[in-house]
Amino acid sequence: MEVNNQQEMSPQVDEVENGNVQKDSLPSDASESSLLVIDNKSPARTSGNNDEASLEMVGTEMLHDNTTQQSEHTSQGSLSHSNAPHSFTASERFKLILSLWPYTIPLFTVYAAEYMLQAGVWSAIGFPVTSSTSRAQFYHYSNWTFTPWSDTFSPSHLSKYQAGVFLSRSSGNLCIASIRILWLMPMLQVANLYFFWQDAVHHFLYSYILLLPCFFAGLLGGAVYVQGYSRINMDMPVELKEFALTSACVADSLGILVADICSLFIQSCIYKENHVTGAVVDCPY
What we know:
Shape: elongated
Distance between the termini: 134 Å
Number of helices: 10
Largest sheet: none
Oligomer: single chain
Order of helices and strands: HHHHHHHHHH
Helix content: over 70%
Strand content: under 5%
């Protein structure tokens, strides 16, 4: 019986070896060992062709994935490029600069008031005010690091204004002020300017205690500077941050320019009220 089965299977095995019949056409009673024999006797080129086909399919899939990723990166790059400031027209850039007014107005205001204090009001304060040496001494106490009239170091010779600037500018990593606080600080600086101006004329609090509000002026100026640029860095889109930061710095520079011009007339008017000569320009009233 076994001999007959082997004889019946032998032609089919020969056909499978020649590649004419597939394994599914074998009798159902064929044993696994017979199938193993048939597989072992299959031509090597058949398995080689299958391996090549599999490699070709894998390579095709990898090429398709790479093409898809490249197309996605290209589309994202095109989108970011279209939103980049260097692709804007002149009118679009101007509109973008105007849209920064919530940050540029506080920067302009605080710097204008701050430098009017320094160059216009503090230079016209002295004890007594008629002494040019006293005026220069108070100016250096309030603005600079050391006075040129002392050879020995004293804590009182430290600049109150610069100390305030140093502390407030170091607060950028500690907290971020809201827009309301950012606008409140320049208003306080304008009030500070008005206080010093009136005190320089009427002398109602006229002593070195004025160094304390000088310190407060430094706090306000440094805080608006660091918080203004921190808010721009936080609020603006990534592709617009660099353009926004470089554009906003024009505001504080413009504030300094306006303050330096106005300080000439502020100093002249304070000199006039205190009967002091030596002003560069004439007071307009």
